[in-house]
Amino acid sequence: MFASISGRSVIVTGGTRGIGKGIAKCFLRAGCNVLVTGRDESVGEAAVEELSSLGGEVLFLHADVSRKEDCHQMADYAIKQFGGIDVLCANAGIFPTSKLAEMSEDDLDRVMSVNFSGTVYSVIACKDALEKSGRGRVILTSSITGVVTGFPGWSHYGASKAAQLGFMRTAAMELAPSGVTVNAVLPGNIATEGLDGLGEGYLRQMTEAIPQGRLGDVEDIGNASLFFAADEAAYITGQALIIDGGQILPESMEALQEM
Question: For the chain, what is the domain count?
Fold first, then answer.
């Protein structure tokens, strides 16, 4: 049995939908107090209403992590409401499609500013409070895309996710003396609202590429995040955990057919 983390203060950036909301659910069920952030007020309010009956206290703050000032406001708000910050789940991210022949400067800058700079700004803003916690945890939501695999149209997205891991390793070293750990979860294909418009055929192909025969659930990522936040994971830092149902294992579709 793991020691309880009930009562701890958690920030989940991009926590109003998709994987972020799944992460928030898991921490709330564990009795934590959770601040979710996002850029859409109505979506944020709906998320809080949905999550409010799960356990600890849940609050929403409008914030754009690509703006350093917003990240500092987020940290200040969590400290004011919950008395500190024990866990930062730097989850906010976007994944627009743009092949190289069509990619504009704005396309690249926006993805990097949210997915990579937003991660860095969030950690910087929460750093002092995490160190004061004595049990500080940073959990980044990266991806198998860009780190292990590639997909046409997502070169900028993949680059941003790989950049997170480059940041993670040195950040883990810098924060290690204060006992703060920095780790990452790398989701494969997870069933979220973001897949709704991709069509039945695409979803079927994705599912067929996974040895377990199913898309991941957002709470699969949330449970892995809970593990990294646990006291029992205090000696794990600078590590990346792939959560993909075995998606990256087959060397070809033929390998899957052989199953």
Answer: 1
* Sheet order of strands, 137-141 included: 58-62, 33-38, 9-13, 87-90, 137-141, 181-187, 240-243
Q: How far apart are alpha carbons 226 and 196 in whole angstroms?
A: 27
Q: How far is CA 8 from CA 19, 30, 89, in A?
A: 20, 9, 13
Residue 242 makes CB contacts below 8 A (sequence gap 6+) with 144, 148, 186, 188, 248
CA angle at residue 252 from 160 to 158, to 5 degrees? Answer: 5
| Neighbouring residues of 71: CB distance < 8 A, sequence distance ≥ 6 | 63, 65, 118, 121, 122, 124, 125, 126
Q: Is residue 63 part of a domain?
A: yes
pTM score, whole prediction: 0.95
Alpha carbon distance 220, 95 (integer Å) = 20
Beta bridge partners of 149: 145
**pLDDT tens column, 194-234:** 676 677 888 888 898 999 999 999 999 999 999 999 999 99
Q: What is the pLDDT of residues 27-62, one digit of tens each?
A: 999 999 999 999 999 999 999 999 999 989 999 999
Strands (E), 91-218: 137-141, 181-187
Domain that holds residue 213: 9-257
Task: State the CATH number of the domain containing residue 217.
Answer: 3.40.50.720
Concatenating the DSSP letter of every residue in 58-110 gives EEEEE--TTSHHHHHHHHHHHHHHHSS-SEEEE---------TTT--HHHHHH
Catalytic machinery residues = 157
